[in-house]
Specification:
Length: 482
Amino acid sequence: MKHAHLSGTEQAWAGLGGDPALLTHLGSSTRLGTGGSDGLLPARLPVMELARSAVAVCSLAAAELAARRTARPVPLVRIDDGAVATAFTSERHLRIDGRAATTFAPLSRFWRTADGWVRTHANYPHHRARLLSTLGLPARTPDGIAVDTAAASFAGRPSEEIERTVYAAGGLAVAARTPGQWAADPRGAALAGTPLVGRDRIDGAPVRRTAALTGGPLMPAAGLRVLDLTRVIAGPVATRTLALLGADVLRIDAPQLPESPDAHSDTGFGKRSVELDLEGRSGRAAFEELLADADVVVIGYRPGSVERFGLTPQSLATRRPGLVIGRLSAWGHGPWARQRGFDSLVQVATGIASVEAAGPGGPPGALPAQALDHGTGYLLAAAVLRALTEQHDEGGSRLVTLSLARTAAWLLDELPDRREPKPDATATADPSYDPEKWLTETDGPLGRLRHALPPVAFDGSPADWSRPPGPLGADAPAWLTA
């Protein structure tokens, strides 16, 4: 349902429970201003509106928390569209000692089927092996042979049959649908009427106050401790943003679960990283010791995969009253709530790829950025920051919940129909947009990284992260300060 009278920023801020007065003019200045040209993320859907809105409310939530902790007025927030567009494509701009990052593997792509198209995702070795198993191929099959075999097999099979077979094997394949088909499907219908941001107060825990902020850049999350149990893009973007704002963010990974080093090189800024095996007694004990002093836990694993470790919101809040919990998934509610998913697959299932197709008869299209990932990441950071403000004012353990599929519905059905110009095949980039302005280089343990600067900004905010990413799992399971 379109909210034509509300901008994307107004919609998102309302969904976060923010005070609408913070969006209004104050004398001759504005608390929230935007600058830059349209068309930086060209698409048929209002992708730039989604991007600037998500970053705007994240910046405003950070400014609001900074005001609470300094007892001063809310700082002025300004959003630069160039910085937003560059950040939303950060993985494409990343260079590691001059090398471009690997984004999609050869088996992560569209395939023609007997009745349409299907998209697979096989960036991780275990997902690749499971996809190949459905084709009768061993895990070590070379990419060229695997691609040829998949193309021949899928061409004679219905899309939904491929989807069912691959998912049953633990892999990832999604049939391309139109927005109407997704809305009529029980998996899409389950999202109807759900909020963009789920916000719940779990209990009546007392107010937890942190020390007042003094001097230097305004770091609204300074002194806060964040346990980061997220992977890939959306969750790590959220926790990277909390790290930018001063939080001590400790990323936790299972030693047996591979992660892309390139993805971590992009989203690991400001954080430390530790490996903990929650299946073992020592790993569980180390986690409980960290939880005892944590302020925020962010979970990006699919529902049903980590609850056995006591990572339900109620259990976490019982063990650490006053905790703020952020929870992220691909599909949200409904029959696919516990299914694996990634931005590219959600685009295909929900009909975004259909809308963005170049023309009839050809393959589905894609957004000009992994906008569901990045947008949901900034919304998640905003939701955590707003929950921290509410905890500061009223107490209570807090839960915020988001999903890529619900963000997709926001893009498809609710944002103002302010479509960005879609370039034709010969169009050149907008000459007014040069991403170099919003890129910088940082030396660190992973080499010299060229990376996007943070788009979250308000008067007095930090201009860059305090530390570059280090190797995954290289840090001790301990907080920086006592």
